[in-house]
Design a protein that fits this description.
EC 1.1.1.23; Rossmann fold; 6-stranded mixed β-sheet; NAD; Hstdl_DH; 16 helices; alpha/beta; 16% strand
Length: 431
C-alpha cells in the first residue's frame, strides 16, 4: 500500500483541498472529559491532585512538588555535553530576539513602548514513552532570556522516580520547582494554583489531547496564557528534481514516528521524484521496522505526495497548509523561500532536516500546528514579553489638540467626562 500520489491541478483544488481539513485537530471530545477534572482541581486543590494522580498514574504521592536542587542525578557525560551544546545554541539564537524599549515624538508628545516580562511560567514535560527533554530547553530558555522570574516544570510522576535528565535540566536551568502532576490536572494546578502549587500566568510545552484541551479551555476563559493551540506534528516539504528521494523519505518518516496522527506532505514539480520517494518509504518500512504500525498509519492515512505543474503552485498550497515544519529542498531554496509567508519554522537546503531544529541548531521547536502559523509564530522571547505603551503629553500639545478631542468625544456621547478631563486642562491657559 504505497503512499498516495496525486496530480495536483490548481484549476481543480477540490481534488486535494481535503488535506487542509485533515490538519485540523478536534479537541471537543477531550474538552468534555477534562472540564470536570479542571473544576475539581479548582474547588479541591491538592486533594484533587492527589486523587487524580492515584487514579490516572496509579501512584500515591506524599508531596506534589520537588526542589530540583535537593535531588542527586546521574546523567552520562556525553548526554550532558549534547544538551549543553543545544542549550548554548538555543541561548545564542534567542538572545538575538531581545527587544529594546523605545520612544518617538508624535505631534509634540513623547510616546513609547516599554517591554516587560510575564511574571511566571509553567513548562509541561510529558512522561513515559513521550519523554521530550529537549522541549524543556525550548520552553525555559527564551523565558529566562525575557526575564521571567518564576518558572516551574510540570511533569507526570514516574513509579521509578523522575527521569534523571529532567531533574538535571531543571538544575542547570535553575527553575524554582518541579510539579509532579501530569495530564489535565497538572495544567489545572498551575492555572488555578493550589495549596502546594503556585499559580502560573503562562504555560507552554507538548502534551496529549487532554493536555492540549486543558490548555485551550483555560486560556479561553482567561485563566492562563498559552503559546498556541497544539495539534499533531506535521511537515511540509517543497522539492524539485534535484532533491534526494531517500533523504526526503527519511524526513517524512521522522514526523511519522511522532504518532499515527502525524502528517507529512511532499509538494513537488517532479513526478520521478514523487515515485522515487514512494519507493524509498517502502524500503524504509522494511529496513527500520521500529514503531512500524504507527509510521505506516501516519504515512498511508494522513500523508500525501502532490505533484504540481509549477513550483509557484507548490508555494501557494504550502502557504494555505501553513505547516508546522517546512523543508525546502530545491536547486535555489532561498528563491523559493521568498514566496513563503506562513510556516512555523523553515529548513533550507538538503542538509537542514527538521531534526536539527528539534534538537541542536538553536531555533525553537515549539511551533504552531494545524495551519496555526497563519496567525501564530514559533515560541520565542517575544512570547514572554508584554508591550507597555506610555505617553507624556505636553501642555502645548493638549491645548492644540483639545478642539479635536472635544468633537470626537461629543460624537461618541462621552463629552461629559472624557471631554471634560481634557477641557479642564485646556482652560488652565486662560487663568
Amino acid at each position: 500500500m504505497p503512499i498516495s500520489i496525486l496530480k495536483a491541478d490548481p484549476a481543480k483544488p477540490e481534488g486535494y483541498s481535503h488535506l487542509l481539513k485533515k490538519a485540523k485537530s478536534d479537541l471537543s471530545v477531550a474538552t468534555e472529559k477534562v472540564i470536570p477534572i479542571l473544576r475539581s482541581v479548582e474547588k479541591e486543590g491538592d486533594k484533587a491532585l492527589f486523587e487524580f494522580t492515584k487514579k490516572f498514574d496509579s501512584i500515591e504521592l506524599s508531596s506534589l512538588t520537588i526542589d530540583p536542587r535537593s535531588v542527586r542525578t546521574n546523567v552520562p557525560k556525553d548526554i550532558q555535553e549534547a544538551f549543553l551544546t543545544a542549550k548554548k545554541n538555543i541561548e545564542t539564537f534567542h538572545k538575538a530576539q531581545l527587544r529594546d524599549s523605545w520612544s518617538v515624538n508624535v505631534d509634540g508628545n513623547k510616546l513609547g513602548v516599554k517591554y516587560t516580562p510575564i511574571p511566571s511560567l509553567a513548562v509541561y514535560a510529558p512522561g513515559g514513552t513521550a519523554l521530550y527533554p529537549s522541549s524543556v530547553l525550548m520552553g525555559i530558555i527564551p523565558a529566562k532570556i525575557a526575564g521571567v522570574k518564576e518558572i516551574q516544570l510540570v511533569t507526570p510522576p514516574q513509579k521509578g522516580g523522575l527521569p534523571d535528565i529532567l531533574v538535571w535540566l531543571a538544575q542547570i536551568l535553575e527553575i524554582d520547582r518541579i510539579v509532579t502532576v501530569g495530564g489535565a490536572q497538572g495544567i489545572a494546578a498551575v492555572a488555578y494554583g493550589t495549596e502546594s502549587v503556585p499559580k502560573s500566568e503562562f504555560v507552554v510545552g507538548p502534551g496529549n489531547s487532554y493536555v492540549a484541551a486543558a490548555k485551550s479551555y483555560l486560556a479561553g476563559v482567561g485563566l492562563i496564557g498559552i503559546d498556541s493551540p497544539a495539534g499533531p506534528s506535521e511537515v511540509g516539504i517543497l522539492a524539485d528534481e534535484t532533491a534526494n528521494p531517500m533523504w526526503i523519505a527519511c524526513d517524512m518518516l521522522s514526523q511519522a514516528e511522532h504518532g499515527e496522527d502525524s502528517s507529512a506532505i511532499l509538494m513537488t514539480t517532479s513526478q520521478s521524484l514523487a515515485d522515487a520517494v514512494s519507493v524509498e518509504l517502502e524500503k524504509a518500512f522494511v529496513e527500520r521496522p521500529k514503531r512500524l504500525k504507527m509510521k505506516q498509519h501516519a504515512i498511508y492515512e494522513n500523508s500525501c505526495i502532490l505533484v504540481f505543474p509549477k513550483m509557484d503552485d507548490c508555494i501557494h498550497f504550502s502557504n494555505l497548509l501553513a505547516p508546522e515544519h517546512l523543508e525546502i529542498q530545491t536547486a535555489d531554496p532561498y528563491k523559493v523561500f521568498e514566496g513563503i509567508e506562513h510556516a512555523g519554522s523553515v529548513f533550507l537546503g538538503p542538509y537542514s532536516p527538521v531534526a536539527m531544529g528539534d534538537y541542536i541548531s538553536g531555533t525553537n521547536h515549539i511551533l504552531p500546528t494545524a495551519g496555526g502559523s497563519r496567525i501564530y509564530s514559533s515560541l520565542g522571547v517575544d512570547t514572554f514579553l508584554k508591550r507597555v505603551t506610555y505617553q507624556e503629553v505636553t501642555k502645548e500639545s493638549l491645548n492644540r489638540l483639545y478642539p479635536h478631542v472635544k468633537l470626537m468625544s461629543e460624537l461618541e456621547g462621552l463629552d461629559e467626562e472624557h471631554g471634560t478631563s481634557v477641557k479642564v486642562r485646556y482652560e488652565e491657559k486662560k487663568h
